[in-house]
Design goal:
- The protein is α+β, with helices and mostly antiparallel strands.
- It has a domain at about 10-230 and about 390-395 and about 415-435 and about 445-480.
- Helices cover about 25% and strands about 15% of the residues.
- The protein is built from twelve helices and 17 strands.
- The strands form five sheets. It has a nine-stranded antiparallel sheet, sandwiched between helices.
- A hairpin with a 2-residue loop joins strand 16 and strand 17.
- The longest helix is centred in the middle third of the chain and has 19 residues, at about 170-185.
- The chain is globular and about 50 Å long.
- It starts with 9 loop residues before the first strand and ends with a strand.
Length: about 475
């Protein structure tokens, strides 16, 4: 099974190392889960790609359905025919591996892959209205001044030593080409961006397709902002753990200690840790209060948490059941404890120290009047246009947006390279570029598995899913 799967529309995967007794993949290169050629789906027929390169046409623009329709929308449509527009991979101007000298393999596997795409939504933490892509440039009809034979000038590809031997960018990129191009055809994805990190280095940052079809704006891993869906939950969890290490928050205290009045019955028995690990006992519902048509129908975070508490169907701590509301409540706890709006706290205390200068939880819907918590104009201009594929058309979303009350669960907009910085910090004991964003012990605690419903399924850490992929222990989160 490849680390990047088309079924996961957007994913953050930290590969921490092989389990004890596992065969050393250095001596068996075919076991490398990232770049094994057989792991990638078959690429689209060469003639289909060539035809798309020759006469790619701009998809027609149609009216978008209402917010009520958006709440119920999910899934994808029939597979495209060979005559439909296909993704055309832009080849890098020069492979960095040509001049890089292989280094000795490391002793521990630390590999991270972050991917996003522009398909319709399936995870309730990010609506189908948001295009979810981020990666390098590719197009059959590039804008003026853009060389269609090169990737984004800010993309990075280097040859890096690791526990599986030298990770060859050529082999990695071949894997990505096959998987991404086939997935774009199958799932009608307008654009895709991917960043790959090894240890403390960004080794590949690439993209295919468009961030905006009407403007013919290419998807850029460095500057295009895409909604990352439920991967936002890991960022919210990281912000929460900052307050824990500063002594402002105790994970084992009940929610009622931090939110007054309590937002739901039983808040005196549900702890912060229960919310963080989806063990509060809540059912999860979102239809009718997930997205809004305009600012008048929007809910603030505080209003949302107070108004939409779900039923508690299990005792706290008994069972892990995915809960968007739990993460929204954690966002309100962050705001209350820090005495700062949730978006402001994350921007100032987490994203800024990380150097994630093209990322924010702030909303940028065009129909909303300017607010203090709006996404800055210079970032809003770089935000990818969301689409839904229906009836053979890409339908742009120009109206609805996620309620601010759901922001901590799924509203982060980020670039692929900013997400790479987030991964680098988590893989390097809380440090990036000499800045200690989190203490090493805090990062270690976040990576510790806390609960598992059954030995045969994945578990929960502090914000991450604990899992195994191809025999490797992983920390990950999906989103769409």
């Amino acid at each position: 099974m490849p680390l990047l799967r088309p079924a996961i529309l957007l994913g953050l995967i930290l590969t921490m190392g092989a389990p004890a007794g596992a065969q050393d993949p250095v001596s068996e290169p075919a076991q490398d889960p990232v770049v094994t050629e057989s792991a990638a789906p078959s690429a689209a027929p060469e003639n289909a790609l060539a035809k798309a390169a020759e006469d790619a046409a701009l998809p027609a623009v149609v009216d978008e359905p209402s917010a009520a329709e958006a709440d119920a929308a999910s899934g994808s449509t029939d597979a495209p025919s060979a005559s439909e527009q296909a993704p055309v991979q832009i080849q890098p101007e020069a492979e960095a591996a040509d001049s890089a000298a292989p280094a000795e393999a490391g002793s521990a596997a630390e590999r991270v892959t972050e991917a996003a795409d522009g398909s319709s939504a399936q995870d309730p933490a990010s609506p189908a209205t948001q295009s979810q892509a981020s990666v390098a440039d590719t197009s059959a009809d590039a804008p003026a001044g853009t060389d269609p034979t090169t990737t984004d000038p800010n993309s990075t590809e280097t040859e890096i030593p690791g526990a599986f031997g030298v990770l060859d960018p050529n082999r990695l990129n071949a894997f990505l080409d096959g998987m991404v191009e086939a997935s774009m055809l199958q799932y009608h994805l307008p654009g895709v961006v991917v960043s790959v990190v090894e240890g403390d280095q960004l080794i590949s940052s690439r993209g295919w397709g468009f961030a905006d079809l009407e403007k013919r704006q290419l998807a850029s891993p460095a500057t295009s902002l895409f909604r990352v869906g439920s991967v936002s939950k890991v960022v919210t969890a990281t912000a929460l753990m900052q307050l824990v290490e500063r002594g402002q928050l105790d994970l084992e205290q009940p929610v009622s200690r931090y939110l007054d009045p309590p937002p739901f019955p039983g808040a005196d028995r549900v702890t912060v840790n229960h919310l963080l690990t989806h063990r509060a006992g809540f059912e999860d519902g979102y239809v009718g209060h997930f997205v809004a048509d305009d600012a008048a129908s929007d809910y603030t975070l505080e209003d949302y948490v107070a108004r939409f508490a779900p039923a508690q169907v299990r005792e706290p701590g008994q069972f892990s059941s995915y809960s968007n509301y739990s993460l929204a409540t954690l966002g309100q706890i962050i705001a209350t404890v820090s005495a700062s709006p949730f978006e402001s706290y994350v921007d100032d205390q987490l994203l800024a120290p990380l150097g994630m200068t093209h990322s924010s939880f702030r909303e940028a819907a065009a129909q909303m009047p300017p607010r203090d918590d709006s996404l800055p104009a210079e970032l809003a201009e770089q935000r990818a246009q969301g689409y839904r594929y229906s009836g053979g058309q890409q339908r742009p979303n120009t109206r609805w947006f996620m309620h601010r009350g759901m922001a901590p669960a799924g509203s982060l907009s980020a670039t692929a390279e900013d997400m790479a910085r987030f991964m680098r910090m988590h893989l390097n004991e809380g440090r990036i570029d000499g800045v200690q964003v989190l203490r090493a012990e805090t990062v270690a605690k976040m990576h510790q598995e806390l609960s598992r419903n059954h030995p045969e399924v994945g578990g929960n850490a502090h914000g991450f899913w604990a899992n195994q992929i191809s025999g490797l222990e992983t920390l990950e989160h999906g989103g769409a």
